[in-house]
Amino acid sequence: MYIPGTILMWLAFFAGLASTVTYWLSIKAPERWRSAARQSYVLMTVAIVAGSALLMYLLVTHDYRLHYVWAYSDNLLPTHFLISTFWGGQEGSFMLWIFWGVLLGLPLMRFARSYESRVMFIYNLTLLSLILLLVKQDPFRFHEGLTAALIPMDGQGLNPLLQNYWMVIHPPIMFIGYASLGIPFSFAIAALWMKKYDEWTRVSMPWVLLSLATLGTAIMLGGYWAYETLGWGGYWGWDPVENASLVPWLATLALTHGMLLQRGRGRFRRLNLVLAVASYLLVVYATFLTRSGVLADFSVHSFVDLGITGLLVFNMGFFLVLAVGLLVHRWNEIPTEVGDEPFMSRTIFFVVGILLTMLLGTVVLFGTSAPLISRIWGAPAQVGPDFYNRMGFWLAVVFTSFLAGTPFLGWSRARKGWVRILGLTGAITAVVMALAVVAGLRGVSAIIYVSAAVFCVVTNLWAVVDFGKAGRWRLAGGPVAHVGLGLMMLAFLTTGWLDQQHKVRLTEGRPAEVLGYTMTFRGVEKPTPQARDAMVVEVTSPRGRNFVLKPKMWVNQKTNQMIANPDIKSFLTKDLYAAPVEFEPGRDAPVSSRMMLTKDQPATFRDWTLTFKGFDLTKQNAVPGALTVGVVVEIQRPGEEPVSLEPSMVSTDEGVQPVAVEIPGVGGGKIRATGMSVDQGVVRVELLGLGGGIGSTAVLAKGETMAYKELTITFDDFDLTDFDPQAGKINFGVVLSVEHGGQSYEVVPTVRGGMGGEPQVTSATVPGSGGIALTPGRIDAEGGTVQLQVYDPLLAPEAPTAASLVLDVSTKPLISLVWIGTILIVIGIFMAIFLRRNDIATIPVEG
After folding, report:
1. Which helix (H) or strand (E) holds 460?
2. How many CB atoms lie within 10 A of CB 664?
3. For 303-330, what is each residue's pLDDT tens digit?
4. From the centroid of its chain, how far is CA 329?
5. What is the greatest pairwise CA distance in the chain?
6. CB-count exposure of residue 784 (10 Å: 0-12, 13-18, 19+)
7. What is the DSSP annotation of 685-721?
8. Which pLDDT band, with edges at 50, 70 and 90, does 440 fall under?
C-alpha cells in the first residue's frame, strides 16, 4: 500500500469517529464538547481533501505502482481525461462523494444552529459509512506481489466510452447531489429526535433545493452525454443505473413540494419526514444496486463487485432500521390536521402532484429492481423501455395537467379571475394545437399528451409574466421550473414518436439522398496520429445549405474495441443525427510492379523509365506528431516529358504509413513508397492499377511443383554460395526449374540482407514467357519451404474498390426543448434557493 494515502484514509475515519462521539456528548454538554466535535470534523475534512489531492497527484504523475492508477489511466490520456480518471472507478467515485460530503458539512455546521449536535451526529454517520468502504477497499493499494522490476510502464486506460468531456463535468455534479441528500435526511432524523416537526423544513429547504438542482442537472447532462457519444440516437434508455439516480430525484422533487405545502398550510409533517428519509435511503439503495455487481449483466454503467457488497448491505440496513424505527416510534406524536380545502385549490393540486411523483418513482423503482426481484423465483431478468413508457405515459399527462392548473389557484381556493385566465390560456393552447395538427401531429394519445404539455407551458408562462408585472420576480422560481418541465415533456414525445430514421450506405464520392438531405462521403480525416478517425460527410440540406458532418469511428488499441461517436447538426426546430455503423475501407488497385530504385540510376517498367532523385525532408512536420519523408521519383514515358512525383512515408507511434500519389494521364495508376534506406540511397516502390500483378501464389517444399498457365515450376533448393552470417552476408537464392514450350530453364530469384534489416528481394524473369517473373515471399529455411509469387504483366488491370460508410441518419424534432427545459428547471430551482436564503436566520442557535 502507499503509506501516506492509507494513513490519510484511516485518519479521516478516526477523526470522523471522534467527531461523531463528541457531537453525541455535546447534546448534553455543548459547552464542553462542541469545540472538540467541530475540530475533529475539520481534521476529517483536511484528511479527505489531502487524500483526494494525493490520489489526483499519483494519477497525473502516472504512478503505476497503485492498482487504481494502472486500472484507469495510461500514458496517452490528455490532462482533462487524466483528471477524470479520479472518479473513473469504484474507489475514486466514493472518494469524490466523500470529498463533496465533508466540504458540504463545513457550512452545515455553521447553519444547522439549534440542530447542530444531532444533525452533525447523523450526518457524520453517513460520511463514516462511505469512508469505511475506502478503508476496506483502499484506493492507495499496490499491485499484489509488486517488485521494482514489475512496475507497469503503462496503464490499462480509461474506458473509451468515458473519454468524453462530459466525463469531466457530469460525475462531480452528480455526487454533489448525492452528498447533499444526506443533509435533509439528517435534519429529518434530528427533528424526530427533538420532536420539532416544523422548523426543520425551513433550515433544510436550501439543501433540498441544492440536491434537486444538482441531481437534475447531472441526470440531463448524462442524457446529453449519451446522446452525443453513444450513437444509439437517444438520451434516455431507462438503463437501471440511469433510473437509480432518477428515483432519488423524484423523491426529492416530491419532498420540495411537500415542504412548500407544510410552509403554506402548516400540515403534512409526516409526509415530509417520510420523503426526506426516503430520498436518502433511495440513494443508499441505488449505490447498492450499481456497485454490488447485481446489475453487471443489465447495465453498461454498472460497476463489478469489488468485495464491498456486505458493507453496502449493512449501510442500507443500518440507515433503514434507524429511520423507519424512529418514524414508527414518533408516528403517533407527530401533529396532524384535517384540511377543508376544496378540490380547486393549490393545496389539493400539490398533494395530487406529490402522489403522482411518488407513484412514478415507485414504477421506476420496481422496474429498476426487476433483476434483483426476479432472482427470488428464477434467473434474473429486467424490464424493457416499453414497461416504463406504458406505465408512465398517462401519469405524465395527469401530472402535467395538474402543473398547468396551479397558477390559477391559491392555497385554500381558486384565485380571483381564474375563469378569465383559464379562458385566455386555453385559447392560446387551442391555437398552438391547431397548428400542431396542421403540421402533422396525429393520434388521439399524442394530441392529448401534447395538449397537456403545451397547456402547462402556457399557463406557467402567464404566471411568470404576472409575477414580473407585479415586480415579484423572485417568487417566479416555481413557474419558471414548471415551464421547463412542460417543454421537456413536449420534447419527450416529439423525439420519441415523431423522429425519422434511415440507414444508408454511402460510397466514397457518390452522393445519396437521405431524409431529404444530399450526403457525400469524402473519406477519413486524421489530422494527427493521435486523433480519432473522422468520417467526413458533406451534406446539402433541402434548402441548399452546405455543411460537413464528421462522425468518428476507430478501434481502441488497448481493448481492441470498436468505438463509434455520432455527429450532430442542430437547427432551430430539429437535430440531424448521424451515427456511424460500419466502415469498409475499400481496396487499392492491385500492385502492378515492385521495384528497388537506387538514387540517380534509371530503372524500367515496360517502356517507362523511373529514376529516384532523392528524399524530400522539407515536409517532416507536415503531419503534426509524425515524421514525414517524401520520395522524389521521375517517370518518363515514350514521347512525353518527364514527370516528377513525390509519394511519401509517414512514421507515427502506430507504425509507418505509405501515402500514394496518382500518375498523371493514367486512370487509376498510382505510385507509393513502401521502404527506404536513407544511408544507402535506396527506396522500394510499388506501381498500382497499371495492369499485371500477382497471378498465383503457392508454398512449395523442395521437389514440389506448381503450374501457372503454360509454366511448370519446381522448387529445387536454396543457393547458399553467398550465405555467410558471420561475415554479415545473409544472401541466398531460390533455385527453380521452369518448363515452358518444351524448354527447361533454371530461374534463381535472390534474397539479400540489407535495407536496415529488411531483406532485399530480386525477382527473376522466366525467359520467353512474356515477362512473367518469380518472387520468393516468406521463407522457412529449417522446414525447407518457400512461398512463391508469380507476377504476370499481362493480367488485366483491376479497378480499386471505393471505401464505404454505413450511417444511421435520423432527425430529432424539437429536441432542443429537452436542454432548454433542463436549463429553465435549474434556473427556477436556484431562484427558489435565493428566495429561501434567509430562512435559516429564523432558527434559534443551540445553547
Report:
1. helix 444-469
2. 10
3. 555 567 788 888 889 999 999 999 999 9
4. 46
5. 118
6. middle
7. EEEESSS-EEEEEEEEETT-EEEETTEEEEEEEEE-T
8. confident
